[in-house]
Design goal:
Layout: H1 16-47, H2 49-56, H3 60-86, H4 93-113, H5 118-134, H6 140-160, H7 166-230, H8 240-257, E1 261-268, H9 271-278, H10 280-297, E2 303-308, E3 311-317, H11 321-336, E4 351-357, H12 365-381, E5 387-389, H13 390-396
Parallel strand pairs: 4-5
Antiparallel strand pairs: 1-3, 1-4, 2-3
Helix pairs in contact: 1-3, 2-3, 3-4, 4-5, 4-6, 5-6, 5-7, 6-7, 9-10, 10-11, 12-13
Length: 397
């Protein structure tokens, strides 16, 4: 990929957007390291005032050297502060380059002011060049130009001011060439390694983001599937299987706590006639309206589900049969009050409800459903629009 490729000469990304992103990512670290490096460079450069006194004594050259060193130290400290606050490779490359040019110029000026110390200055130039490449964070092109300026300026000063012999100048040239070559390729390798590491980290971040999105998507799908499995699409009540699971848990808890437990089976009267006369869409609206009425009429702890077709089933924990009968009768009245006259002017909505309750510890949910279903069946045959208790059916039998 072009965005991952690096320049062979500068070590930078060939794709400008990726390079800008990399520089933005390292900006805080570069600001900190540049500030510290410039403070150290200013301290070291200022300390060499001691050697100035050794070579020149109290003289005009000493005062000039001290003034120059003071200006360089002050400039480096100010630039360290400014770079630490607003340093940015993307928009202010010149700001990061400026300290290198100031230091290079100062080192070159030492030659005419202190020519007798040229042998020691050669070493200082080599060390400064390596520091430019490896210790003061900067872009490779910026460092290479500043180092080339330092090397050529120092060599020119040595030849023109210090009367350096040709053989010595050649040796200095070879040393500076070697120093620049080592520094250049060391920084080039470092630039490439840092950018490759950044590219790998970005890849990992993208993959992690995609993984998080995939996990989130799967969780969303699982939630949707779970909702489809647990909820009835038309009425938004519990599906039959989900109701059975929840009702079983409520029944077990009621047995453990020895609390009453009742169950209601609700059937919409003449539902087939509604579908045949006004259509299945109207039948669906009736079921949804009755389901909503049931939900509003029950307590939060009660569980209601669509048992199938036009039948609903309700589990009533902590509810005696008599209380369940009151709930059923109230529900009947509310269903009868539903405003369906305009859609079905000749029809009045009614429901038949069968109720069963736990009479013995061994009664399970299937038994309760069977008892409530028998009570419902008796109510349908007894004229509909009724609430029938399972005990009444047993007594009649």
């Amino acid at each position: 990929m072009t965005s991952q490729r690096l320049s062979r000469l500068t070590g930078q990304f060939l794709e400008p957007g990726r390079e800008a992103l990399y520089r933005q990512d390292i900006a805080p670290r570069v600001r900190l390291e540049s500030g510290l490096a410039l403070c150290v460079a200013a301290l070291v450069f200022g300390m060499f005032a001691i050697s100035d006194y050794h070579y020149t004594g109290v003289s005009t050259e000493l005062y000039l050297l001290l003034a120059m060193r003071l200006m360089v130290v002050a400039s480096c400290l100010v630039l360290a502060f400014v770079i630490g606050r607003v340093g940015d490779y993307n928009r202010r490359v010149w700001l990061h380059a400026l300290p290198l040019w100031i230091l290079a110029t100062a080192i070159i000026l030492i030659v005419p002011l202190r020519p007798e110390s040229l042998p020691t200055q050669v070493t200082a130039v080599a060390v400064a060049t390596m520091a430019f490449y490896l210790l003061i964070p900067n872009l490779l092109p910026v460092v290479a130009i500043a180092s080339l300026y330092l090397s050529l300026g120092f060599l020119a000063s040595a030849v023109m001011v210090a009367d350096t012999p040709a053989v010595v100048a050649l040796r200095i040239s070879l040393l500076l060439i070697m120093t620049n070559a080592v520094g250049f390729f060391a920084l080039l390798r470092l630039e490439k390694l840092q950018r490759k590491q950044f590219a790998l980290l970005q890849e990992e971040r993208v993959q992690n983001h995609q993984l998080v999105e995939e996990i989130s998507h799967r969780k969303s799908l699982e939630a949707q599937l779970r909702r489809v499995a647990e909820r009835d699409a038309l009425t938004d009540l519990d599906s039959r299987s989900h109701f059975m699971t929840r009702a079983e848990a409520l029944l077990r808890r009621s047995r453990h706590e020895q609390a009453p437990f009742s169950l209601m089976m609700i059937d919409v009267d003449h539902f087939k006639a509604i579908n045949d006369t006004w259509g299945h869409s109207q039948g669906d609206r009736v079921l949804a309206a009755i389901a909503e009425t049931c939900k509003r009429s029950l307590r939060p702890q009660d569980v209601i589900g669509r048992f199938g077709g036009e039948e609903f089933i309700v589990a009533l924990p902590d509810t005696h049969l008599k209380d369940a009968q009151m709930v059923a009768e109230r529900l009947q009245r509310k269903v009868a009050e539903l405003p369906v006259r305009e859609e079905m002017p000749e029809h009045r909505l009614t429901v038949t409800i069968g109720i069963a309750g736990v009479l013995a510890e061994e009664t399970d949910l299937a038994d309760l459903i069977n008892q409530a279903d028998q009570a419902l069946y008796a109510g349908k045959h007894g004229g509909r629009n009724r609430v029938v208790m399972s005990q009444e059916v047993e007594d009649e039998a």
